[in-house]
Write a structure and sequence with these properties.
InterPro entries: DUF4331. With 464 residues, the protein is of the alpha+beta class. The chain has one domain. Helices cover 14% and strands 25% of the residues. Strands 3, 4, 5, 6, 10, 11 and 12 form a seven-stranded antiparallel sheet that branches. Strands 1-2-9-8-7 form a five-stranded antiparallel sheet, with no helix packed on it. A hairpin with a 4-residue loop joins β5 and β6.
């Protein structure tokens, strides 16, 4: 749901489909920021014989805006190459894969990582960096954590990078939410369209449990990302906030040859996917403009601001849950634009709204995951982040365990509107609404060190 299959065209192109984006000051190295962009959503672990991999024909990029104009000042580009050792076997591996250079591993990927700046400079940070294999099972990948650890590459300048399969860390009840906005913990309050289907409330069901993704993970010094290379220590310093988003691009034209898999790609790269804040294109942008949104730069997001100012879901909640959201219903009918959501998602939160915090990037409306790098990692993280008093969490960047579904549902339900209009009283339900999931619903636990997402599920133990 964060951005899994969120638009008609990209849902047909999972290799280029950005699913989740994370940006946070690293708890294992507080002088750095960790950036993670996930692709290839909803991977079943038993995906053989052709296991999941990045696209050699896709340009994957993570972008940083450090001057508030919604345009990239720094870009990290990942370019992949696939090598088949033995084209005369159908097998991904012919024996246990015990190392990244194992001759038994038949289909492998490597990549080049390049740093680009707005003034045209390109610096190759690493070549022929090896991805780990997919996690297949106890015979093929008997010590997967060691393989993944070997694929964490230390680079010059205090950087480290990883690209490969990880356990899905985003938890969400897709099956319930997209069944006409049902939330299992409150489903008896749903209008049920007169069908009286639910007679009791149920716990949430994690749709992404035991599924994998492919992650681009990068840890770099804070001074590499900020304007003028500074290291802000004051949260109020405007230079402390950066904006992050990820994109995937494909060549403008493809010609298919008689030999499948050996077509010609030509023309410039065009953007086919992007992601900043979770759920933005998924929930706020209407169906007829989702593909357009995926093709646009954040600097043009003023064209989509109306859907943030008057979100469709805010109007649906009082209808789907009669009598539960009367104050939200009155707010909707008043026609007041949702200045709270416009700030959270499109400009950042100015100083003076949340005591001791800001991640404001200026008046340019742009869907960016904004991170104030002067906020240190929390010693007692709260999965609800900023709304629960933990300024190191979403929407100040996003950590892998943050409950962004609950945070955004509560914000849309009106919980954050008093920040901009103290006369508004949120409905009691606004502070309770959730899909009923927590990090405990992620079977493979998060890591406490880079690359933070858990060991991917293997197909033998997770055949579904």
């Amino acid at each position: 749901m964060s951005s899994h299959r969120e638009a008609p065209e990209i849902s047909k192109d999972p290799v280029a489909d950005s699913t989740d984006l994370y940006a946070f000051v690293s708890p294992d190295a507080a002088e750095t920021v960790t950036l993670i962009a996930n692709y290839l959503p909803l991977q079943g672990a038993a995906g053989g014989p052709n296991f999941f991999e990045f696209g050699d024909d896709v340009r994957y990029e993570i972008h940083i805006d450090n001057d508030g104009d919604g345009r990239a000042d720094i870009t990290y580009r990942f370019a992949f190459t696939t090598t088949v050792v033995n084209p005369d076997t159908f097998l991904y591996n012919t024996a246990p894969i015990t190392s990244l250079d194992s001759p038994a591993w038949n289909r492998r990927q490597s990549y080049t990582l390049t740093r680009l700046t707005a003034d045209g400079r390109e610096t190759v940070l690493g070549r022929d960096l090896t991805c780990p294999p997919c996690n297949i099972g106890p015979l093929s990948t008997p010590d997967y954590p060691s393989l993944a650890s070997a694929a964490v590459h230390q680079l010059d300048g205090g950087r480290q990078v990883f690209a490969g399969q990880r356990a899905e860390g985003f938890y969400v009840d897709l099956g319930s939410i997209f069944d006409l906005g049902n939330l299992r913990p409150f489903q008896t309050l749903h209008n049920q369209f007169g069908m009286s289907v639910f007679t009791q409330n149920d716990p949430g069901v994690n749709t992404t449990k035991q599924l994998n993704v492919h992650s681009l993970a990068l840890q770099v010094p804070i001074t590499e990302l900020t304007k003028d290379g500074c290291r802000p220590s004051d949260v109020t310093d405007p230079r402390a906030t950066i904006g992050v988003w990820t994109t995937a691009g494909r060549r403008q034209a493809q010609v298919r040859h008689g030999d499948p898999g050996h077509g010609t790609h030509s023309g410039p790269f065009v953007q086919v996917s992007r992601l900043g804040n979770p759920l933005f294109n998924e929930v706020l942008v209407p169906m007829g403009k989702k593909d357009l949104w995926n093709s646009q730069p954040p600097s043009d997001d003023k064209n989509f601001a109306a859907y943030v100012a008057n979100p469709e879901l805010a109007g649906l909640l009082p209808v789907l849950y009669p009598g539960v959201f009367p104050n939200l219903d009155a707010l909707n009918k008043s026609g007041k634009p949702r200045a709270d959501l416009l700030a959270i998602l499109l400009t950042g939160i100015p100083a003076g709204i949340v005591p001791g915090f800001q991640n404001f990037t200026g008046d340019t409306q742009a869907d960016l995951l904004r991170l104030n790098v002067a906020v240190p990692p929390s010693s007692s993280p709260n999965i609800l982040g900023l709304v629960a008093g933990d300024a190191a969490g979403f929407p100040n960047g996003r950590r892998v365990f943050d409950d962004v579904v609950t945070v955004e549902l509560r914000a849309i339900a009106g919980l954050t509107f008093p920040l901009v209009d103290p006369s508004f009283t949120p409905d009691a339900a606004a502070g309770q609404i959730t899909d009923g999931l927590t990090p405990a619903d992620v079977q493979n636990p998060y890591l406490t060190t880079f690359p933070f997402l858990g060991v991917p599920y293997d197909g033998y133990h997770n055949p579904s």
